[in-house]
Q: What sequence folds into this?
């Protein structure tokens, strides 16, 4: 509840009064000009000026907690912004921290915690890419840290929205081989899951039971086990919807080659008819919303 309240206050700065006062939190949000009423303009203003009132020179634990709170709200708002706005927002942040190693390390840690952690509710690979690119603009990093950041960026950049999804081979339950690109449909939903993943046991029934997914005639769903424990996959006899396709990656090639960056499973990718990524590592709610919008 506390987390939700903080996010609502951040949104308050963009959308305007919602019955919540910005004084309810400690982070000093920028003050949006009253005459600025367009939502996207307000969002851009807030993100560009987000850190303008925060004291980066105050190293007290309380101020660092306020900064962490601000960072979580910053990346949440970033997820609603277009690419140029996200790039601008990160650039403005880097102007304030890029020449201070202590601040760089602190924000690198926050970036990894909130955007790189598979279990983070704020994990978003698009925002993660912008933050990693921003951090890499600093000249202060040693070679080892720069290499680590570059590797993260390389992984995150795979199969981003707007790019062609990587094709792959898969084997069905009777041993026949197929390629993902052979699926012909207006939309394709890739569902990567693991029979030994507890999170998958919890979420897969909800995905399979989605009336929105089941009712969309434009959509073909392909469920893929990307790893190499064939025995575990074969022993699991899932009750998949009748119109789903299913397979496994031969010898776990998808995982070994890191064809898809699967930080956590289940992981869903929504593709268009040309196999371009519409949604990457999306939640069920995001997939359903996109399908319901029919755009």
A:
């Amino acid at each position: 509840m506390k987390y939700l309240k903080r996010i609502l206050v951040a949104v308050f700065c963009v959308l305007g009064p919602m019955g919540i006062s910005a004084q309810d939190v400690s982070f000093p949000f920028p003050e949006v000009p009253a005459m600025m009423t367009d939502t996207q303009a307000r969002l851009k203003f807030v993100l560009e000026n987000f850190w303008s009132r925060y004291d980066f020179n105050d190293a007290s634990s309380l101020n660092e907690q306020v900064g962490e709170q601000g960072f979580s709200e910053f990346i949440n708002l970033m997820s609603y912004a277009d690419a140029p706005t996200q790039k601008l927002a990160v650039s403005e942040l880097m102007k304030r921290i890029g020449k201070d190693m202590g601040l760089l390390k602190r924000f690198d840690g926050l970036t990894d915690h909130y955007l790189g952690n598979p279990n983070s509710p704020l994990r978003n690979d698009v925002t993660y890419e912008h933050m990693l690119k921003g951090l890499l603009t600093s000249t202060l990093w040693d070679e080892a840290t720069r290499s680590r950041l570059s590797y993260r960026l390389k992984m995150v950049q795979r199969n981003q929205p707007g790019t062609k999804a990587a094709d792959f081979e898969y084997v069905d339950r009777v041993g026949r081989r197929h390629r993902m690109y052979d699926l012909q449909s207006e939309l394709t939903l890739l569902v990567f899951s693991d029979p030994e993943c507890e999170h998958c046991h919890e979420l897969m029934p909800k995905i399979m039971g989605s009336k929105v997914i089941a009712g969309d005639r434009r959509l073909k769903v392909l469920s893929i086990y990307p790893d190499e424990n064939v025995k575990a996959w074969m022993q699991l006899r899932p009750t998949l919807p009748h119109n789903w396709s299913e397979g496994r990656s031969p010898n776990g090639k998808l995982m070994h080659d890191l064809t898809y960056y699967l930080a956590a499973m289940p992981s869903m990718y929504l593709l268009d008819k040309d196999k371009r990524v519409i949604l990457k590592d999306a939640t069920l709610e995001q997939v359903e919303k996109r399908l319901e919008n029919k755009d």
About this structure: Residues 35 and 214 are 45 Å apart (CA to CA).
